[in-house]
Amino acid sequence: MANLNEDELKVFVEAVRHYFQHQTGKQAEIRASYLADIGMPRYDYTGLITLSGKFRGCVYFSAPRLMVRELLIQLQEPDTREDNLLDAVGEVANTIAGNARRHFGNALDISVPVTIRGESEAIRSSVRARPFAILLRWQRHEAVVVVDIDSAN
User: What is the pLDDT along the chain (153 residues), one digit of tens a residue?
Assistant: First the structure.
């Protein structure tokens, strides 16, 4: 997977679409998907999944506070305190990575989500010079999924 092909990238785009449609009944609009050059977009809350096995790297979902809060409300979760906001971004990242695992099979091992509050500078491209970014809009809010994976070979 040194160079993700178009079909492999579509797995992640479709996982994003599926998550929002299935969980909220409201589709996310994919605004753009591209190879990121300098700095990857990050928002108030980030859920990050580390990948290992025959693949290595990470996938993360990052969204602004208002979007995550609205997501919880759509999921009929009235508790929008900090812990639940962090849990929500972790769950989105976990679901997206889980959908990718179904496509790539047992060769893709996924970690439990790590959640981060704030636009952490600690998140850097770990395996690709140019990670793949999927910009999305859901309920008037912008967010991003970043796919930074490569073959472990």
Answer: 445 667 778 888 999 999 999 999 999 999 988 887 766 778 999 999 988 887 788 899 999 999 999 999 999 998 999 999 999 999 999 999 888 888 877 777 889 999 999 866 656 656 777 788 899 999 999 999 998 888 776
Which domains are seen in the chain, by residue range? Answer: 6-151 (3.40.1550.10)
Residue holding tokens 């812990």? 83
AA letter at 122:
A
Rounded Cα gap, residues 25 and 128, in angstroms: 34
Nearest alpha carbon to residue 4 among 99, 146, 124 = 146
